[in-house]
Amino acid sequence: MPIRLEVWGERALFTRPEFKTERVTYDVMTPSAARGILDAIFWHPGLYWRVDRIHVLNPIRFDNIRRNEVDSVVVASKIRSMAEGNGDGGAIYASESIQQRSSMVLRDVRYVIDAHFELLRNKMSLTDSAAKFQNIFVRRASKGQCFHHPYFGTREFPANFRLWEGDDDPIGFEQGHRELGYMFYDFDYHDSAHPNPLFFRAALDNGVLDLESVEVRS
Amino acid sequence: MTEHTPIENRYDFTILFDVENGNPNGDPDSGNMPRVDIETGNGLVTDVCIKRKIRDYVQLAMDGEFPWRIYIQNRKTLNRLDAEALEAEGIKAPLENKDLAKEIKALKKNDPKLDRRLRDYMCANFFDIRTFGAVMTTFVKGNLASGQVRGPVQLGFARSIDPVDVQEISITRIAVTTEADAAEKNNTMGNKFIIPYGLYRMNGYVSAKLAQNITGFCNEDLDMLWQAILNMFEFDRSAARGNMAVRKLYVFKHSSALGDAPSWKLFDAIDVHKRDDVDVARRFSDYDIKVNKETIPSSITVDELVDHGV
Q: Considering its fold, how many domains does chain A have in total?
């Protein structure tokens, strides 16, 4: 049972793993980011989303943003000693840990995601069924409900969403064939301690990123 | 925060703030000029800029008191320096939340639940982690997601309603820094950028589910968030900022955790426009704001928060 979701927003950042310090976005949304949007609306241990196609409705345009960021993360061992009564847990002082990083982001994006879910029977209860999951998703998407607000790659770029209305197929922003090179597909979580990144050769045909017939490799 | 229950409703909110003869958010890429969308001329303020001000307000108002501590601080506070001095003398600062501390101490070194405990400890103690989340190292080795705490509050970028015009103001100063300069000249020139007037709009989201499942963000935290937003510029005066003020804070409260309507429909219901008889906007009263209540489902309450009481 496929679903078709329209998503749009002012900006997006689908970071290329090879340019992640000074972040550079992919030209289009990755399957992983699309799955993240679906998961934000509805997810259940008994299902996982498969993205079939991403329709790119707006021209691909970029923008540059440089921000002051901190270079540190919270360190578990320091938290532990703070909880035991020593130190301040290594609080991060922005003026000392400052780092300026730029992001090349997409602007004015609009996509239509075609997806379906597959079931994990052993994680489902007796009352769970594909129809039930489908109904929950459709109900939530049409009412604008979500578990947390979905976003385009990073949380500062919120994604608006609605079910695609009408019977017509969405129309891509351009005609013709455009190679996008190797692109991140998603993580393989079979070994949850060591998720394995997967890649595929991406191309837009008439503005559509086809994910059904692509070869995915690590 | 065991005694406080997490929020049970989803919220969306819109902040309207303005700047008068100031620079709301400098762009490090363009010599600290105000951030401007070069295609449209609209002014921008980043999400992290506003988060910084929210953190600073809470730090100032609550003075690092449990459970309102701030993890990512702007600068070292005097208290911290005092504490460091005490520590150097071998006196340790007293610890709040002693029970949890004891529990953590009692846990064995490789207890898999320890990570969870530490995360909960951080959320219980620090307002900013409970609200915005944080990235923590190696809570479970190799597992990518477990070190990341997603907070319930999410902010987008702020954008000005109309294009802003950026002016460069040249200034002089009489005092000269170095002796060498002093021999040659008796004053130096500098420059600053100002926006004569700009009204900005920022939208935000509060997820009840993330509050319930992860950080325990509760109603007291929500009130603190609104208070911080309303007052965030009151304690952020500087030569660069000019006059900045939060003019309106609209809060949409959904009737459930998942919500009743798409956020964009709610945001669309707030229409902010320069008044027709105004040529160049220079003050807040040059704008008309209309809330189209008929497009908002009746199960959602819209509050206009204006309480500026500190």
A: 1
Length of chain B: 310
Q: Does B116 touch chain A (CB under 8 A)?
A: no
Strands (E), chain B: 11-22, 26-27, 33-34, 42-45, 72-73, 133-135, 148-150, 153-155, 158-163, 167-173, 188-206, 243-253, 270-274, 287-291, 301-305
B169 belongs to a structural domain: no
Q: Which residue, B220, B222, B229, B195, is CA-closest to B207?
A: B222
Tell me whether residues B156 and A157 touch, CB distance under 8 A: yes
A154 falls within a domain: yes
A157 falls within a domain? yes
With beta carbons less than 8 A apart as the criterion, state whether A70 and A97 touch. yes
Mean pLDDT of A167-186: 95
Contact A74 B155 (CB under 8 A): no
Query: Closest residue of B to A75, CA-based?
Result: B137
- Residue A171 falls inside a structural domain: yes
- Counted domains in chain B: 1
| Residue in A67, A91, A107 nearest the CB of B46 | A67
State the smallest CA–CA distance between residue A120 and chain B in angstroms.
Answer: 21
Q: At B85, which helix (H) or strand (E)?
A: helix B78-88
- ipTM for the assembly: 0.90
Pairwise CB contact (< 8 Å): A91 & B142 = no
Q: Which residues in chain B are contacts of A85 at CB distance < 8 A?
A: 92, 95, 101
Q: Residue B219: which domain range?
A: 11-63+150-164+192-305
Interface of B with A in 28-47 (CB under 8 A): 28-29, 35, 37, 39, 46-47
Q: Could you tell me if residue B170 is inside a domain?
A: no
Contact present, A57 and A77 (Cβ < 8 Å): no
B95, B117, B137, B209, best to mutate vs chain A, most A CBs in 10 Å? B137
Q: Is residue B142 part of a domain?
A: no
B 3-22 residues inside an 8 A Cβ radius of A: none
Residue pLDDT, tens place only, B49-100 = 999 999 999 999 998 888 899 988 887 665 565 565 556 555 444 455 556 6
Note the pTM of the prediction, 2 decimals: 0.89
CATH assignment of the domain containing A213: 3.30.70.2660
Note whether residue A29 is domain-resident. yes
A157 → chain B, closest CA residue = B156
In this complex, which of A76, A143, A146 lies closest to B136 when CB atoms are compared? A76
| Residue B272 falls inside a structural domain | yes
Taking each helix axis as running N to C, give the angle between helix B114-125 and helix B98-106, from 0 to 180 degrees, rounded to the nearest 10.
160
Helices B219-231, B47-62: axis angle to 10 degrees equals 110
pLDDT digits (tens, 9 = 90+) for A16-59: 999 988 999 999 999 999 999 999 999 999 999 999 999 999 99
